[in-house]
């Protein structure tokens, strides 16, 4: 079993790695402090069985990263770690169908329990996440993982060519996705698309 920990806080990543090595002696555990490094080394991604992602990272947050790399990772499970659950992160996590969401403030035992649940094919969502999900209004709009990735890159100001390069698709495919996004969000252009997505908690 191969586990990838993506967290810009080295102390947390190292502590979690040591904890996991004690719990799973047979596991191969890798830590990554710079999420964008993974985008340039995508050929390594299919080897992992579990990805533990920090949500709040300065260059690329965990959910945006998963929207970019998730489809490249086959049957890999993903557990998102967060300092706190917000309505926006809850909405995005639901849209991306993550396997679990755990608060970093939870005990080591609880975090290990969350990891075990996700690794065995079940799901784990912290109480704060479940409370937030229960209080958030139901959203009928559903976007694909690729459309969510495109939204995230639109927000960062990337053009069609760069988005196509990052997603390994043609520029025409990106144009098609943009047209569908405009239709789903009922907007005329990129600026309005980004603003509407923010209002809906998709970004």
Question: Which characteristics define this entry?
Answer:
single chain; 203 residues; alpha/beta; 6-stranded parallel sheet; 6 strands; 51% helix; globular
Explain what you see:
- By secondary structure, this protein is of the alpha/beta class.
- It has helices at residues 10-23, 35-40, 62-69, 87-96, 108-119, 127-135, 145-155, 160-167, 171-185, 190-199, and strands at 2-6, 28-32, 50-54, 77-82, 100-103, 124-125.
- A six-stranded parallel beta sheet has the order 2-1-3-4-5-6, sandwiched between helices.
- Helix 3 links the parallel strand 3 (50-54) and strand 4 (77-82).
- The mean pLDDT is 87.
Number of helices: 10
List low-confidence stretches: none
Largest beta sheet, briefly? 6 strands, parallel
Overall spatial form = globular
Distance between the termini: 32 Å
Taken as a percent bin, the fraction of beta residues is 5-15%
The helix content is: 40-55%
SSE string, helices as H and strands as E: EHEHEHEHEHEHHHHH
Gyration radius (Cα, Å) is: 17 Å
